[in-house]
Amino acid sequence: MSAAAGEDGELSPAEARLAMMEIANMISVPMALTAVIRLGVPSKLWAGGANAPLTAADLLPPGHPDPSVLERLLRLLASRGVFSEHNPTGGEDSRRFALTGVGRTLVPSGPSGASFADYVVQHHQDALVRAWPRLLDAVLDPSGPEPFARANNGVPAYAYYGQDKEANEVMLRAMTGVSEPFMEALLLDGGRGLFEGVRTLVDVGGSSGACLEMIMRRVPTIREGINFDLPDVVAAAPPISGVRHVGGDMFKSIPSGDAIFMKWVLTTWTNEECTAILSNCHNALPAGGKLIACEPVVPDTTDGSTRTRALLENDIFVMATYRTQGRERSEEEFRQLGLATGFTSFRAIYLDPFYAVLEYTK
Ligand SMILES: C[S@@+](CC[C@H](N)C(=O)[O-])C[C@H]1O[C@@H](n2cnc3c(N)ncnc32)[C@H](O)[C@@H]1O
């Protein structure tokens, strides 16, 4: 039985206590997941596509003193659909685990070698985890520093990544790992007509340039790509044929192009900051030029579906990590932000359960 909004009347008191017990201990799930990723479990199971069910002992170095500790993590994650559990002989020592479809997102599928495993690890680094106990402060002082900055000597997340080589690289891989499969879908049929007539494309907040590289490979009419991000970020980005990495600050100005691509940027900022970014995009475009933004769009109704949960959980992640008043927005809020900045038309295209494509025309 689900305890989603509006359904709690169906629960007996014992079921309600059980549902709360589950929520109270939910942190076990992402922390167990992070541990098994750092132990290399998904790639050992995948083994080039074999995905043969293995025991915890098989997944650890020979002679490990107590594989049952790892087995407990694997069982929890099997209950969450990350692994399938096989118990061929029914004996206590014979539990074997393989990756499910959900688990396979932790294995690289694209050319970069990154996957959702990098995203999970990025989200559970010490500096990010430290922010969570300060979530209360976001409510009490919404215009003050976000929980991440409060927990990390006043340093905001993007500045923190810039100062820490390893955190910067982890962020680049995390963004690539999540972006690649979405970009594959976006780029079906040569980009679904979104990039027609574009010769110079700017990716604002483009991170490693992985999205731009994929677009340029699929849409050969684009002659020049400009990957625009913070100077420390582009300094760590790999060279990409046809792409110029440009370091700068989107709050000051954005390089000009026929069109601008921008993925997962607006959500992390406040309305005032989004207005400044959109306004700089508008200035960088010719008349009739397009801004193609890919952002999560928050649903109007609340339910217990995986989609709603994934979106609302990400909204609170943004609150804890980037900006208390940065947030996921509805389609109407995105429309209003763009029209108020001078864009003349707007449409939203839903081709993925997490990201919507928001097309603004100047
Ligand atoms: C959530 S990430 C998205 C990365 C990439 N677009 C993707 O979806 O894979 C947001 C990006 O915005 C960049 N960013 C943050 N502040 C910026 C600024 N002031 N100017 C330019 N880029 C910025 C970050 O460095 C980061 O790469």
Automatic annotation (TrEMBL):
Domain O-methyltransferase dimerisation residue range list: 21-108
Originating organism: Leersia perrieri
Pfam families cross-referenced by the UniProt entry: Dimerisation, Methyltransf_2
GO annotation terms (biological process): methylation; nicotinate metabolic process
Any single GO CC term annotated in Swiss-Prot or TrEMBL for this entry: cytosol
UniProt keyword list: Methyltransferase, S-adenosyl-L-methionine, Transferase
One function term, GO molecular function aspect: nicotinate N-methyltransferase activity
The keyword S-adenosyl-L-methionine appears for this protein: yes
All copies of domain O-methyltransferase C-terminal, residue ranges: 132-343
Protein's UniProt name: Uncharacterized protein
